[in-house]
Amino acid sequence: MSFPWAKQYEPKSPLMKWVDSRLPLPRFVYGAIGGGYPVPRNLNYFWNFGVLAGMFLAIQIVTGIVLAMHYAANAGIAFDSVEHIMRDVNAGWFIRYAHANGASLFLMVVYIHIARGLWYGSYKAPREMVWLLGVVIFLLMMATAFMGYVLPWGQMSFWGAQVITGFFSAIPVVGEPIRVWLLGGFAPDNAALNRFFSLHYLLPFVIAGVVVLHIWALHIPGSNNPTGVEVKDEQDTVPFHPYYTAKDGVGVGVALLVYCALIFYAPNLLGHPDNYIPANPLSTPAHIVPEWYFLPFYAILKSFTVDFIMSAKLWGVLAMFGSILLLFFLPWLDSSPVRSANYRPTYKWFLLVLLVDVLVLGYVGGAAPTPGVILIGQFATAYYFLHFLVILPIVSAMERPRPLPNSITEAVLAGKGGTSPLQTAAAE
Amino acid sequence: MVRIGGILVGLGFVFALFLGIIDTFSNGLTTPKTVEQEFHKHAEAPEGGFTFTGMFGTYDKRQLQRGMQVYKEVCAACHSLRLVSFRDLAALGYSEGQIKTIAKGFQVPSINPETGEPATRDGMAADRFPSPYANEVAARAANNNAIPPDLSLMAKARHDGPNYIYSLLTGYQAQPAELLKKYPEAKTPEGLHYNPYFHTLNIAMAAPLKDGQVTYSDGTAATTKNYAADVAAFLTWTAEPKMEARKSAGLAVLLFLVVFCFLAYGAKKQIWRNVKD
To answer: Which residues from chain A sit within 8 angstroms of residue B83, using beta carbons?
Structure first.
């Protein structure tokens, strides 16, 4: 693990020597996120987002535990218990807004983290396991976020749960019994709310566990970097602490600034007004939409409108899950030996189109389904699948990459060490 | 193998989408506008706007008190405020004695201590604003089968809530002749009332406010527009009672974080001074 020139932990005080010889936990931390982890010197600010995701996971766990002290997971009083937090609990409004907006920021940060991985080829050998564990974390986050949104038991909570668990009923024959079994009833009710709360409390700790594996797997080959060229010797790296702790500090400050601007000045901007109406099984909202971070996947679901062998609904559900599951195959779909898109003249344009395409899907997922919007969604969904499953394998086999620098240091000295996608696009 | 399988799966999805695209085209890309799409209006702010908008906006306590008076004398006849306690009114500048008097003006459900029969008693500061109806059936029976919704969270439960409440309360009008000409079947049904700010254009509630209905003691003109703006402000407070604490805490937090960002950036520059990245 790690590089031969990595510094070893040397306890100075007698106490730390005593601890280190009995339980080398300080040594472990030093090697993981301290001076003992050599990191490429050319990481740009896109490499802040892993630490930021960890920070938001911690924020969500802390605020969530406090909320759970005041929240009541019972369909009869859940809505009012949330309002009790907002009105009567000391600083309860702050804790709740911090948790609700923390979920949005967590997902936002993770989307940028994933996009970073796509651009710089961080999913490729020898970091496949880091990527696979990352996709697992993403799936767990989506499940946790969905179940958390159900807990306030407002209109969108209830109808969102109704729609999402309805996916299972698309499975032929056994679908409906599975749905009823998952919900503990024929429609979302107290049984569903209780188990969602239980799982919503459990899964973040599962995520934290997988995050440990994710970081462990990362430390075997070490961090990727904007050139995608492997570390060759000591001058290519700097110790994580103090260099990247300081650089991450800047990212932490900016992320908290955005986060707190939302909490204190626009706490309901990313929510839906209907969730301030108590859940009512007899009144369907005009527009059922998920939270913003699920909109691209919701658009994929809605784009399949024609029965063909399978029902359109089953196509939509398979495509929606498939759009995430295909990420598990990404390291093997992309056969190009070059990691960074900065050196892939053809592929990088397709990747830029994909990033825009996902934003278009997000818009389509939230818009009223007029024929024009549906059509845009269908083309955008088609590109999503074409990109990963058809274009990427073909382009990676045919493309002639630009010459790579011999080492990270060479690229840095030429002023091209930390090139970001924006700079690459601007240089064209 | 993975790549060949991937290409086949990908083409499968794309073929299903292709059929969908053909279907979308063959159904036509234009749909006729519905009457709601054509005549629904977005909420508008009252003249001069509200005092609580923007980063430094605060509630105008006198306006909230007027709004509370409108609620008490008009809205409370049908609408509850079940999440708000009388004691919360202290935030509007009422004294303890005034709050007790206001609470006394409401009858809350209770139990006769002698017989155990359902009864009512005078409200107390710790009580919530009660519903004027004993239950949902009674509410429906009294209102042509429509339930008057609870108003505690109304300002957050509608898009652009405060302006929506103001626009809805001042938006009652005769159905436009143009609408009836174009959509004769959309004539407002018996028992409903035309209001372009309501999502279906026809609302069960009759116009609740008229000029001179409530007598203000602070000299504010007794107009429907003032009533509507005042009650919208009051309902914004009932929905978000901690707004002022939130904004003032936010200012301190943001100032702290801006300083933090500069310090963090300076620290980063200092630490990296000898390393080119």
So the answer is: 80, 83, 87
* Tokens of residue B105, six digits: 């003006």
A352 contact B CB<8A: no
Contact call for B156 and A252, based on CB within 8 A: no
Domain segments of chain B as ranges: 38-80+131-241, 243-277
With a cut of 70, say whether residue A76 has pLDDT above it: yes
Q: In order of start, what are the domains of chain A with their CATH numbers?
A: 19-277 (1.20.810.10), 302-339+345-400 (no CATH)
Instruction: Please tell me which residue of chain A has the smallest CA distance to B153.
Output: A276
Q: For residue A58, give the nearest of A199, A173, A224, A208 by alpha carbon.
A: A208
> pTM for this one?
0.95
The DSSP secondary-structure symbol of B217 reads S
Residue A370: its chain B contacts at CB < 8 A?
Answer: 31
Choose the mutation target among B1, B2, B3, B159 for the interface with A, i.e. most A CBs under 10 Å: B3
ipTM: 0.94
The answer, for A265 touching chain B at a CB cutoff of 8 Å, is yes
Please indicate whether, in this complex, the C-beta atoms of B277 and A43 are within 8 angstroms of each other: yes
pLDDT of residue A43: 95
> Using alpha carbons only, what angle is made at residue A141 by residues A136 and A142, rounded to the nearest 5 degrees?
100
| Alpha-helical regions (H) of chain B | 2-26, 35-39, 61-73, 96-104, 136-142, 154-157, 161-170, 177-182, 224-239, 243-271
Contacts of residue A396, defined as CB under 8 A and 6 or more positions apart, other chains included, come to A333, A334, A335, A336, A347
Q: How many CB pairs under 8 A join A and B?
A: 171
Q: How far is CA A28 from CA A245, A343, B28, B64, B233, in A?
A: 17, 36, 64, 59, 57
Cα distances from B35 to residues A157, A425, B191, B200, in angstroms, run 30, 46, 19, 9
Distance from C-alpha of B249 to C-alpha of A265, rounded to nearest angstrom? 10
Query: Residue A428 — pLDDT band, cuts 50, 70, 90?
Result: low
> SS3 of A367, please?
coil
CB < 8 Å & 24+ apart, contacts of A49-53: A49/A109, A49/A110, A49/A112, A49/A113, A49/A116, A49/A251, A50/A113, A51/A248, A51/A251, A51/A252, A52/A109, A52/A113, A52/A248, A52/A251, A52/A252, A52/A255, A53/A106, A53/A109, A53/A110, A53/A113
| Strand-pair partners of B111 | B118
Please give the distance of CA A279 from its chain centroid, rounded to a whole number.
28
Closest-CA residue to B248 (of B109, B58, B112):
B58
* Bridge partners (DSSP) listed for residue A38: A239
* pLDDT over threshold 80, residue A424: no
Distance, in Å, from the CA atom of B265 to the CA atom of A34, rounded to the nearest integer, reads: 20
Q: Which two tokens stand for residue B126?
A: 């710790």
Distance between CA B88 and CA A309 in Å, rounded? Answer: 61
The strand ranges marked E within A161-310 are: 237-239
Active-site residue set of A: 219, 223, 247-248, 291
- Average pLDDT value for chain A: 95
Q: Which residues of A touch B31 (CB under 8 A)?
A: 370-371
Q: Amino acid letter at A254? A: V
What are the pLDDT digits (tens) for A381-395? Answer: 999 999 999 999 999
Per-residue pLDDT band for B254 (boundaries 50, 70, 90) equals very high
- On average, the pLDDT of chain B sits at 94
CATH of B38-80+131-241, one of 1.10.760.10, 1.10.10.60, 3.40.1280.10, 3.10.20.740: 1.10.760.10
Mean pLDDT value across residues A45-71: 98
Among the partner residues A267, A308, A371, nearest to B31 by beta-carbon distance: A371
Residues in chain B closer than 8 A to A315 (CB atoms) = 13, 16
Contact A289, A295 (CB under 8 A): yes
